[in-house]
Each structure stands twice: as C-alpha cells, then as structure tokens.
Amino acid sequence: MTSPIFALADEYITSFARLHPMAAGSIGIKGDFGVASDLGPEAEAERAQLARDTLATLRALDSTGAADDLARLHMAERLESQLALYDAGEWRRALRVPYGFIQSLCSYVDLAPRGTEDQWRTTVARIRAIPEMLATWRRTMDAGIEAGQTVAKRQVAEGVKQARRNAGARVFDKHVKAYGDGPQLRDLADAAEAAYEAFNATAAYLETDYAPHAADRDGVGEERYLLHARNTLGAALDARDAYAWGWEELHRIEDEMAAEAAKILPGASVDEVAAHLDAADPLTDHDAYLTWLTDRHQSSLEALDGVHFDIDPRLMNLDVELVHGSSAGSPYYTGPSEDLTRPGRTWWPVAEREHFAVWRELTTVFHEGVPGHHLQIGQTKIAGDGLSRFAKNSGSISGHAEGWALYAERLADDLGWHSDPATRLGMLKGSAMRAARVVIDIGWHLDLPLPAAEAARHGERWNFEVALEVLRERGGIAGHRAHAEIVRYAGWPGQAICYKLGERAWLAARDEAKAAAGADFDLKAWHTRALSLGPIGLDNLAAVLRG
Q: Same domain for 131 and 237?
C-alpha cells in the first residue's frame, strides 16, 4: 500500500504535468498531458500555488518509515527553494542563455519519440506548439518589465542571437528530412516554418521591446545570488568561504597539471603541451567522432558493471548524439523517460568544429555518461518503490547531480582509466575549469575583489572580459566553449559552482564512510547505497548517507 507521503508525491507529479506539458514531455513523465505549456504569469502563479498547497499538505502528513522520511526531506527542500525564488519574482526573469527556455524548445522536439506515425504526430504537435508557447512566455517577460525585474542586456543580446540561430540554422529540418515522404510531411514542414517565424519574432521582441528595459549589470548581487545558490546546491552557501576555497583548489590543480604536462613535453608549459596535443592527429570527421564517443561510452559500461557498480540491464542502453546548429558550448545529458521507453542520451554540440582533440574529452564521457549522470539519473528512474515519484521526476539538484558527475571523473582517474598522461591532463584541465567557475561565478555576481596576486595578473574587479580571461587562461577551456560559458554564468547564477562544491561534498561523504568502516569499506556497496537514495540536497547529503 502506498504511503500518504508517496501518494502526495505521485499526485504532485501528475498535477504538475497537467500544468506544464512541455516539462512533462521533456522529463518523460508517463501520461497524455498535451504538448503546449502556458508560460504566462497566471500559469506561473498556478504552478507556484500547486507547490505551496503540496508543501502545506506534506507538513501535515505522518511518516510511516525511513522511505517516507527521505521523501519528505527531499520534497520539502525542493518546494521551499522553488517557492523562495518565485516569491522573489525570479519567474519574471524568464530568459537564460544558452541553457534556458529558447534552447529547451529545441530539446523538447528532439526528445520526442519517432518511428510510428502516431509518434511522428507528437513531433509535429510539439513543433506546432512553439509559436503559442513563445507568445505566452513573452507575457511573462512583459510582466518583468512592468515590475522592474528584468534580465541583463547581455542575456537579451545573446537571446536574440540564439533565437535567430534557431531559425537560421533551420533546426527542425533534420526531422523533416528524417521523416521522408509520409502522410504528415506537409504538416511537419508547415509546423517547422511557423516555428522559425516565431523564433525570428521572438528575436525582434527582445531586441526592440525588451532590450530598452534590460538591466545594465551582469551580476545579480548577493541577495539574489544566495537564493539561486540555495536552489542549485540544496544547501546554504557561505559565499566568501567558497570563493577563497575555489582559488586554493585552482592553485592545487594548476600544480598538478604542470607535473602531468612535464611527463609529455619536459620543460614545456601546460599551454604548449595542450597545443601540441591538439595538433597531434585529432579526429577530423563527424562520423569518426561519433564512433569514438559511442565506443568509449560502451566500454565504460562494460568495465564498471559487476565490478564497481551493479548496473541494471535497462541502463546498458545509452544513446549518443551529435548536436548541430546549437549555441550550447558544452555536452549534456538527458535521462530516460519514466517508463524507460526513451533511453538516457548524451548530447555533444559540434558548433563549427571540424577537428576533435579527444584527449580533452574522455573525462567528459565519464561525466555525462558512465559512471556519471547516466548511472546516477538512470538509477533514480529504475529505483522502484524505494523512491517517490517526485524524486524520480522532479527533484534533481544540480549540486548533487553535477557533484556526482565530477566525482565520477575523479573515480575514473582513481581506477586508472587515465594511464595516458594526455587524457589525465585533459581531466585535470576540466577540473581546473570547474574551480575557475567557482571563483568567476561568485566573484562576478557578488562583485568581490580578486586576491592581490590574481589582481596583478587579471585586474582588480570582475567583469565579462576578466571572467573570460580567467576561464581561458586559468580554466584552460577550449576556445569554442569559452564565450558561451561566460554567458551561461551570467544568466544562471549559482549553477557554475555546483560541480566543484558538489564534488567536495561527495568526496567528504565517501571519506567519512571509509574512515568509519576501515578495512571493511566496500566501494561498490557504498556506490549502490549512494545512488539508491536518489537526489539529496548537499546540506543533508552526509547525514543521509551516514544513516
């Protein structure tokens, strides 16, 4: 029999899906909820009221055991955090580039099932819904203008580019081509043309109507930043302590990178070694790049199963897809649908690249795929009755998820998967980039001074150019990703810190478990327990794992 708390979680997911069909379809929630979401102010208020009512009911329910305790802890933390953002008016600032609503519309279509005529009808319906959803979204943006709560000019300018890029790149033509000459061809082509017109109209709206009201400053200030950080971390943030730790961690990684680079080209700098590796026989073909990615994902699954993880057979199917015409600079992962008919998938933007220096990217395979996001998020989806439907479908926490994915990169290194100094340097460069994210994101949004030694090198105060320089020079990010990354930090405050701060929390929890168990510590058993608990805010992670 389902407990009242689990029943409430199930009821919330169903009600949320009815109020937000686009989110339901993107997540893969089972059920027919339609395709178009109303993104206007009234609908935003209705979804907030659902969260408020659910939270009030949750507080009044009695627990029937440990599973209920965990479900209540997680659900309450998520709903409280979301409502804090809503009550602060953050819903009116509904533009975030590159990972935000405009990009999500494309992902929503790409995630639609295709194969049968009925499934293709879903694809057609999702594309056809785009003009309507953009129109309701503009009403929310107008509400922000009226309330004096607008996003920064830079986000607006980048949003204009993103919307126009979607239209100019004709991002849905690949589906028209893939469909062939079936009976829905005209409907599909017409829907795509209407979507392109809507993207261009959105660009014009942002440029002409919204931009004059946009904020001048990129940073959101301390009060807003701490609200966002609370939501992304599932924890209260001591921003200045994290800022100081981020610089210390960056320095530690830089020393380790120098030692690794010396193994490849003694006497050369890290940058010189990176240039040498980039020029050394990179892949120059999209098909070869996709084959390399697919092979590495599969070999990781096979190497881990039964050794360091017990991987459910349903998770041994992991799709890999290249993304063309996207403004996203970084790879990303989408989880399986609720009924597992849609597998987990990693997405790899190719931008304008024709050369792929994969020594940099092996660590990202472990991050996005296995043992990273695919194992963590996939395990949540197959957890059965041990997790609430809320935890499985609506409760992801960036600090928990991205922290695990960075822990997975570190685990791959611990397992000896970077025996090649080149790929290990690639892993360290990725870690340096995540440490640079911490100092950039906190320092820029809170307008903190750079430490004296760093100020002499980069400047005393943060701005877009200083952030870009630190990310390139100290974070070592690949050139094609740098600009989009800094735009992302400006539009999504508090998310960039989740990786390193989340990794720190996961490592601390594992170290605590190892110390407690001593020689009896079983890493596979600890992984199994950790992933079976589902998403947990970082404030509660160690205590829940300890329990």
A: no
Encoded tokens for 512: 């605590």
The CB density around residue 547, as the number of other CB atoms within 10 Å, is 10
Amino acid, single-letter form, for residue 99: Y
Question: 345 in a domain, yes or no?
Answer: no
Contact 429, 474 (CB under 8 A): no
- Report DSSP letters for 135-150, one per residue: HHHHHHHHHHHHHT--
Q: Name every residue whose Cβ is closer than 8 Å to that of residue 454 and which is 6 or more positions away in sequence.
A: 247
State both tokens at 32: 């027919």
Cα 56 to its chain centre, rounded Å, is: 29
Q: What is the pLDDT of residue 480?
A: 76
Q: Is the pTM of this model over 0.90?
A: yes
Residues 132 and 102 in one domain: yes
| Residue 329 pLDDT class (50, 70, 90 cuts) | low
Contacts of residue 156, defined as CB under 8 A and 6 or more positions apart, other chains included, come to 95, 206, 207, 210, 211, 214
- Angle between the 41-60 and 4-19 helix axes, to the nearest 10 degrees? 180
| pLDDT score of 385 more than 90 | no
Q: What is the pLDDT of residue 492?
A: 96
Provide the number of structural domains found in the chain.
2
Which ranges of 280-354 would DSSP assign to H, the alpha helix? Answer: 286-304
Task: Flag whether pLDDT at 90 surpasses 70.
Answer: yes
Q: How far apart are CA 77 and CA 98, in angstroms?
A: 27
What six digits make up the tokens of 298? 């599969």
Query: Per-residue pLDDT averaged across 421-435, rounded?
Result: 97
